[in-house]
Amino acid sequence: MSNITNGIAYNLENSVIVKTIDMDSNIVFCGKEENRIIRPFVIDGKTTYGYLCNYPLEDTPLKTFPYFVTKSIENYNTGDILLIDKSGYIKTLYQKESKHNYIFFTEYCNHNCIMCSQPATNSENFKAQLDINKGIISLLPKEEMVLGITGGEPTLFWKDFNEYIALLQNNCPEILLHILTNGRTFYDYEKVLDFAKLNVNNIVLAIPVHSDYFEIHDRIVNSSNAFYDTIQGLYYLAKHNIRIEIRFVILKINYHRMVKFARFLYKYLPFVEHVAFMGLEPIGNAQNELNNIWISPDLYMDELEESIEYLNSLKMNASIYNLPLCCIPDSIIGNYRKSISEWKNIYLDECENCINKCDCGGFFSSAKNLEHKYLKPIKRS
């Protein structure tokens, strides 16, 4: 997650990772009084407690505890994991009620995709980021859940990455990990052997392949030989029965090969367990390349329909993400997924009275100013 809220930290010498706990716990109960709200948290999984509140605690018995004052306290629920920075902000690391939780492993990447929503940087303090990520583990729930790992390219720091996944699985045995990676690390067969020692039954690697044609894929990721390295890695992973999802982001420069891509998948990569066709999130690098890569969904819907129908006919598991429901043909509506994370999706004004709004993922907030003439909301009578 990456929601950030500003405020004022009190009685904190260092930044801390905390988990919010029940208001009716036995620590201190303050409740609500005259619009005053206090929510307790536990620090670093230990027996040190503090509070989120919407007013200073200077005149209360809690004034000596660590606490953070923010006007947005009602955004947080029991079980959320937060980074409270002593300089005056909260960063949400895990939301108990969300279906889209992920851990951001690193900003470093060996690709520079033209549509990347999280462009790589080389200025990150990786050690500090790793410490934050390790701090999350002890606070995660032990029950079954899905957690994403993303970046940057998480596998670049191979030893740290492998050790972190092992630590996660040891602390949360029921966890299902969905790891976003460009897959090039797995061109190295020795690393595949390392990875296969983990509990790979509970790991899905989500790997982008943006075309059946190498030049288009390499152009999109801005790296030569990327296509061949990735495909070789996919075969090595398949040899060890490691679960694979293929991702295809639909762009102006690759949509015309979508049907050929679907046939390529069945012919050369029939072992993948899931194929995701994804609409573009117009943020990050994509904003600078928008004229070259953005295409209105109605202009590629025929290709998408034919591709999905082809994969359906062969019993390959295919899904459609990051598009409004009303533009999807009836023949492939069963492949549609409401997928955009809660904290970055919106609905346009014309969507407000649509009877299918609850089943629709809406739009990325960054797409608000693009033209959406293709919309076909079904209005309530």
Task: Describe what you observe in this structure.
- Strands 1, 2, 3, 4, 5, 6, 7, 8 and 9 form a nine-stranded mixed sheet that branches. A seven-stranded parallel sheet has the order 10-11-12-13-14-15-16.
- The chain has helices spanning 126-137, 158-171, 189-195, 214-221, 226-239, 258-268, 285-288, 290-293, 301-313, and strands at 4-6, 8-10, 16-20, 32-33, 36-43, 48-53, 67-69, 81-85, 89-94, 102-106, 145-151, 175-180, 203-208, 243-249, 274-278, 318-321, 345-346, 363-364.
- It has 381 residues and is α/β, with parallel strands linked by helices.
- β11, α2 and β12 (175-180) form a beta-alpha-beta unit.
- It folds into two domains: 4-91, no CATH class; 102-367, Aldolase class I (TIM Barrel, Alpha-Beta Barrel), CATH 3.20.20.70.
- It is built from nine helices and 18 strands.
- α6 (258-268) packs parallel to α9 (301-313).
The total of beta strands comes to 18
- Measured by DSSP, the beta-strand proportion falls in 15-25%
Mean pLDDT: 90
For the record, the count of structural domains works out to 2
Q: Kindly state the percentage of residues in helix.
A: 10-25%
What CATH architecture of the largest domain do you see? Alpha-Beta Barrel
Given as residue ranges, the uncertain stretches (5+ residues, pLDDT < 50) are: 24-32
CATH fold-level label of the largest domain? TIM Barrel
Mind telling me the CATH class of the largest domain? Answer: Alpha Beta
Report the end-to-end length measured between terminal Cα atoms.
38 Å
Number of helices: 9
Shape annotation:
globular
What is the H-and-E element order? EEEEEEEEEEHEHEHEHHEHEHHHEEE
